[in-house]
Amino acid sequence: MTIQENISLKAYNTFGIDVKARRFVSITSFYELQQLLKIEKDFFLISGGSNMLLTKDIDRLVVHIDIKGTSIDREEEYAVYITVNAGENWHEFVLWCIAENYGGLENLSLIPGNVGTCPIQNIGAYGVEVKDTITKVEALEIETNKLVSFSNEACNFGYRNSIFKNEVKGKYILTSVSFKLTTKKHQLTTSYGAIENELALHKIKTPTLKNISDAVISIRKSKLPDPKEIGNSGSFFKNPVISKMQFLRLQKENPTIPNYPVSETEIKVPAGWLVEQSGFKGKRYGDAGVHEKQALVLVNYGKATGNEVFQLAEKIQKTVLEKFRIPLEIEVNVIA
Ligand code: EPU
Prior knowledge:
The chain is an alpha+beta fold. It is built from 7 helices and 20 strands. The protein folds into 3 domains: 4-65, Uridine Diphospho-n-acetylenolpyruvylglucosamine Reductase, domain 2, CATH 3.30.43.10; 70-182, Uridine Diphospho-n-acetylenolpyruvylglucosamine Reductase, domain 3 (2-Layer Sandwich), CATH 3.30.465.10; 231-335, UDP-N-acetylenolpyruvoylglucosamine reductase, C-terminal domain (Uridine Diphospho-n-acetylenolpyruvylglucosamine Reductase, domain 1), CATH 3.90.78. Helices cover 24% and strands 28% of the residues. Uridine-diphosphate-2(N-acetylglucosaminyl) butyric acid binds at residues 125-126, 234-235, 238-239, 258, 270, 272-273, 276, 281, 294-296, 331.
């Protein structure tokens, strides 16, 4: 465990924001993490850096969680139980599952970030949320340096939400995530329109896990910018949920508004649509911008500062509020 000084965090966040860590340490084992907690409790955690917007240099010790390792805990007739350490790359893990014929995560292909952070915002895409396969999350309690286990229920998962964003925020370091995946009779989720179209395009009638993963990869590549080429954090805003009454009023003025009923009285509307209708899609202000193919994604074309991206987000929020009377909630973690 070596503490380095004045390290640029550009390579550690997918937005590619160039701020500095005054002190920086990479942690590669559970033992190292426990040792560190004995001497330091006030630090800033960074893992895959795929859901954060850094707006200034970090004075606290930056701890990069890089604990690797995957183990198969046990197998049943139709299921396998796997535990994955926090520092494993999410997409590599998904690809490994597909190669091993383990089902459940194929719709979540190509999501940036590491396994250790997937429960925090309950990553989800194309009709699947990671909460559907998580059995357990293990975490070190910062205060006591003890390992604590959270069952799926204890994680309190919701849409882009969990206990780790709320009640216990900042209290734990997630060290591993356990999954239950299928080995036979996979339950495929292909109902999401874009997946059906992609499978039909390739004339696939009985898709395999790999077919679905390939379809998702192709859809994502066609819509979402690759963080290795253009800095971004995926969806910048959450899709807002509004009352049915407000929705019906909006629909009168905007008959084409896409919508997903959440309950009898609530409707989810896509933030990407609201941002596009507000005129921001493809707009660029210096090196900060709104992606040209998906208005939900804010991008850094190279040298944008975190504040420039944040100011753009505020401008979008203000315009959407004025135009549609809908407050947009930021989904990424803004570090100010
Ligand atoms: N839309 C527009 N303009 C845009 C973007 C979208 O009009 O610029 C419309 C689309 O036409 C469509 C609707 O909005 O009718 C929904 O768009 P899309 O299917 O692209 O999905 P989304 O709601 O924008 C959500 C997740 C994504 C996830 C996709 C697929 C959120 C905040 N985002 O996006 O998650 O990949 O569904 O399931 O829930 C992420 O969290 O980083 C992420 C990429």
